[in-house]
Design goal:
The structure is a homodimer. The first copy, chain A, is an alpha+beta fold. The first copy, chain A, folds into 2 domains: about 10-75, Orthogonal Bundle (Arc Repressor Mutant, subunit A), CATH 1.10.10.10; about 85-240, Chorismate lyase (3-Layer(aba) Sandwich), CATH 3.40.1410. Chain A is built from 7 helices and 10 strands. Chain A has helices spanning about 10-25, 35-45, 50-60, 115-120, 160-165, 165-175, 195-200; strands spanning about 65, 70-75, 85, 100-110, 125-135, 140-150, 180-190, 210-220, 225-230, 240. In chain A, strands 4-5-6-9-8-7 form a 6-stranded antiparallel sheet. At the A-B interface, α4, β7, β8 and β10 of A face α4, β7, β8 and β10 of B. The structure holds a DNA duplex.
Chain lengths: ~240, ~240
DNA sequence: AAGTGGTCTAGACCACCTA
DNA sequence: AGGTGGTCTAGACCACTTA
């Protein structure tokens, strides 16, 4: 077995791990085809059935997709917005394709107690803080604070974020880490002053309700790696979550 | 094969269907053990591997759970609140166990265009409308409008709802239908007058932001069967969604 | 010790896509 | 026609639970 260096893990889990690593190393790009089940079985020293089980789970994890008769392919990087989408007030129908992301800045701060606990860090651990503004047809609709453990991503560079497809794409390309959403929490609040000004909500109509979203994301191994807080204006758009 | 009456479906899907039906008919109660994989394979005329695949998917669907060395068991009915929970302002830690449901009434109305489309009904199709109030430590925190296709659930009786574990439990017990959440949509709004009064938000402080939640649920076959609209007060509690 | 679910294999056949 | 994923089988061994 070529994969037996890892111990006490089922063979299919080792196959998953090897494939995840080879994907992170950039062996294939999005929509590239993987070798067939039989070829992988030969390469990795497992049976075709075991490789199938690993591939099935990687599809469930969102890393791959399959097409009957054609092959198994690398799934594209998910957008920062995650599995969720912004939609118009109509019920679920329309696409959020006009959504644009604007990078506002990168700074450092120390973790509050709550956030340190959520990210499983010690108190006051150093964090990166990325601020993003989302626009829909040019109008600001949401503002993000993205907090990342600075020791894990110590070489993070603002230039990467300014020019990339997004924070999640940068983490995947520069650090080989793929995020999945663990938990989201929703509140309705009156929009605070600072966020109101960044979202272009001006003086007299300052009493605007906002959807306040907290989101914890983790790597595929379950390690929490991103804390994100978002204020959304929902006059024109609603925030939707699809299940399964 | 005892299950081959259905055609052109993979054998494991037929096994799933048979087991779902037997569960809906009340052959087992929550936490009862199913027969072993080998016994089911014998009963149903499939191999143990095929039965395993069916059981694995039913576990993924949330209908069953398994324990190594002990057996396969029927999962309990999910609460109306669904996979989601109400939590205190602390980040994700606490349990929503003090949540109580109060049945306010059952009435009939005709579907609006939006809702008819979401439920895949014709315009003005008759609907049941169930109103529910949620309390947390006695204080009202959320108000539900539940819309159900009246022709599908024509014998629905208010007495069932008043005395049961909830709408979803009633539908499962009386109609053999199990719901799963398809899609949820979130907005922040100022609380409308009628809802404010039902939630006990009194006169002068009437300008309260509320979390407005729309939810579409479907049977396990994908047929949309429930439309639910909820206003949540999020001063004390936030609404959370867990993924995977 | 017996029974259960969990993993793994080898081989077969089918449905679908591409060339 | 040949390659791919999708289904199905039969048999083996392991890890865990229960009595």
């Amino acid at each position: 077995m070529t994969v037996n260096a890892l111990k006490r893990q089922p063979l299919y889990a080792q196959v998953k791990q090897v494939l995840r690593q080879r994907m992170a190393e950039g062996e294939w790009r999005a929509h590239d085809a993987l070798p067939s089940e039989w070829d992988l079985a030969g390469e990795l020293g497992a049976s075709q059935g075991t490789v199938r089980k690993a591939l099935t789970e990687l599809v469930a994890d969102g890393l791959l997709y399959r097409e009957q008769g054609r092959g198994t392919f690398v799934a594209p990087v998910p957008s920062d917005w995650g599995e969720s989408s912004l939609l118009t007030p109509g019920l679920f129908q329309e696409q959020p394709d006009e959504l644009a992301r604007e990078f506002l800045g990168l700074s450092r701060l120390n973790a509050s107690e709550d956030i340190a606990a959520a990210l499983k860090l010690r108190r006051l651990a150093p964090l990166w803080r990325v601020r993003l503004l989302w626009r829909w047809h040019a109008a600001p609709v949401a503002l993000d604070d993205v907090l990342l453990p600075a020791e894990t991503f110590d070489t993070l560079d603002a230039r990467w974020l300014r020019s990339s497809e997004g924070v999640h794409a940068t983490l995947q390309q520069r650090f080989g880490v793929r995020l999945k959403v663990v938990c989201e929490q929703f509140r309705a609040e009156m929009l605070p002053r600072e966020e109101a000004s960044l979202l272009g909500v001006t003086g007299m109509v300052a009493d605007v309700p906002a959807l306040c979203l907290l989101r914890l994301s983790a790597g595929m191994d379950g390690q929490p790696l991103e804390w994100r807080q978002r204020y959304c204006l929902t006059h024109q758009l609603a925030y939707t979550v699809k299940h399964d």
